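Tokens for FAD/NAD(P)-binding protein. Go.
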Amino acid sequence: MKKIGIIGGGFTGTMTAVHLIEKSAACDITIFNDASTFTRGTAYNPYSDKHLLNVITSKMSAYPGNSDHFLDWVMERPDFKNKDRKLIANAFMPRALYGKYLTEIWDNALSNNDGKCIVNVVNEQVTDIDVNESFITVTMDNGESMLFDYCVIASGNNVPRNPRIKSPEFYNSPNYFQNPWKEESVLNLTEKPVLIVGNGLTMVDTVVSLVEQDFKGAIYSISPNGFNILPHRHIGMKYSKLAEEIKEGMTLLELVSLANKHIKIAREYGFTAEPVIDSFRPYTQKIWHNFSDKEKSTFMSRLRHLWGTARHRIPLHSYEKLQKLEAEGKLHIHSGNLIDISENSNGIEVEYRDRNDGVIKTMVVGRIINCTGPESDFSKLESGFLKNCVENNILKQDALKLGIVTDIESYGIIGPDGKVYHNLFTIGGNLRGELWESTAVHDLREQAEKLSQSLASKVLSESAELIS
């Protein structure tokens, strides 16, 4: 029986295994993941029920072939049975509820397993992998190793990188929280102000949690571009004219000009840019994959924050909460760059350059939470098997260090020698270097199903060869 190892048991790893079970692939599946986040990963294992999805219910099905699967599941819950279906379809559910949905999918898959699949979940951290033509060796932090015929890296998000400052020894302070997805980051608060570094989606969840903890102090946030997150203002609206003008091989400059043209048209009729930018969505992966490294670099340095503003939106009521906190003087948002952080008996002194006036300023806080986003450059990780894989020349990253160099047709990882491994694969966020947008459920569910189909076919064909 062929053995398949899956490193990571969040959405991508879980759904890959679920599809293999549902396809009755005769294989032995082992998933490596911390038991506390299995099936839910970091994204859907929040420490607060007030952390919401930023995509509406009707678009969050785990199955690409059944678009109403999550909506149907929600409508069967006691809290939603008597609610209007169209209302719920366009609402933003709690992340924790989505985590329960994924857990139930997994439990159902195990219950319906016809015995052809052997399934194991190993609660150990993977520290190393080694690849050869015959098998892949996975080594765990307990020193033990396991051999697999195929291995899937579905590792999810890494903790954020520590911002560059003059005195990095500060990061050893107990008042600094590098991982914003752990509840400890918002517990045991004093009345001293809290500084959130980063102004993205995680910052929103962190502010909501601080308020939930009845924190009375001031909340500061800082990032180079300030707070630019927008609410969902045009749910259900589709803009089609831009797509009619997209041509294969268009340059970054041509695409920017095309976007600006249609944004201007939309604004003439009272609409903002988001529906226009959303209309790129079916084409963004192919467009990105065909960009030169220079175009990708230009996008990242000049356009990334604008794209993120238009694409990564939050529920309107979440946005209004932040606006209210800001109006009340409880939330203070800064656009600037950190220079140094030091701690003394008075608190944590933060020195930064204000981007609005160019002046160096300071603030004193009692806690700092890093919400700058997942680290994608494996060489910058403190430790872990991905860092080891790069150092041991097993895999390589793209020029911008966004993910793993991969053949996007097979999801086979491309080794440093330029050859595609036939037995080592990756999907999810590790494909950002190849596809740019590869973290939404819309993308992950398709990747999981496609890869599982390929693995099931390999298992079937190789089993047939053995029999013959």
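Residues 247 and 271 are 25 Å apart (CA to CA).
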